[in-house]
Design brief:
Elements (H helix, E strand, L loop, with lengths): L6 E8 L1 H5 L3 H10 L3 E8 L3 H7 L9 H8 L4 E9 L1 H9 L12 H5 L11 E3 L3 H11 L13 H4 L1
Antiparallel strand pairs: 1-3, 1-4, 2-3
Bound molecules: adenosine-5'-triphosphate and magnesium ion.
Length: 157
């Protein structure tokens, strides 16, 4: 039928290593080509308090301090990505946390190699719907999230 299935929004962040390596366009195009819609996007330098909020769940872990240093070490590109089951679909496009385990064809599996101290694995994506909602609220204000129609929408969803 013609009914549009329920859409989800999820947060994607191209981490400082992705920006420094010139992979922004390559990464964004993977989501666009898949038919996912970018409804918010900006380049920012994450401040320490924001990084600590974002990675609150990892506080106390052995990689936490290095992770905060890394995510604040240079600009990142943050996006809100929308689509049918977007949270799950985006995680699949991103691949496993440790690039050594990430399947070829995923972003981490194609462009990263291992998980060095500091957690350089190119990209962040919300882990579940609850995380997505919280993270979008932390990273974007409502007026930075847009609504528009892609010309291919009827072909891909
Ligand atoms: N063992 C580790 N050593 C170094 N860094 C790590 C390790 N585990 C996680 N990290 C870093 O912390 C981030 C958050 O870890 P998490 O377990 O949430 O993985 P993820 O959900 O795949 O990644 P993200 O939340 O960034 O999308 C990882 O992406 C990575 O940058
Ligand atoms: Mg995570």
């Amino acid at each position: 039928m013609n009914e549009i299935p329920p859409l989800q929004k999820t947060l994607v962040v191209i981490k400082p290593d992705g920006v420094r390596r010139g992979l922004v366009g390559e990464i964004i195009s993977r989501f666009e080509k898949r038919g996912l819609k970018i409804v918010g996007m900006k380049m920012i330098r994450v401040q320490r308090d924001m990084a600590e909020k974002h990675y609150e769940a990892h506080k106390g872990k052995e990689f936490y301090i290095g992770l905060i240093e890394f995510i604040t070490s240079g600009p990142v590109v943050a996006m809100v990505v929308e689509g049918v089951n977007a949270v799950r679909v985006v995680r699949k496009i991103v691949g496993s946390t440790n690039p050594e385990e990430a399947a070829p064809g995923t972003i981490r599996g194609d462009f990263a190699h291992t998980l060095p101290h500091g957690g350089k694995n190119l990209i962040h994506a919300s882990g579940n719907e609850e995380e997505a909602e919280k993270e979008i609220e932390l990273w974007f204000s409502p007026d930075e999230i847009h609504s528009y129609t892609r010309v291919d929408e009827r072909e891909v969803i």
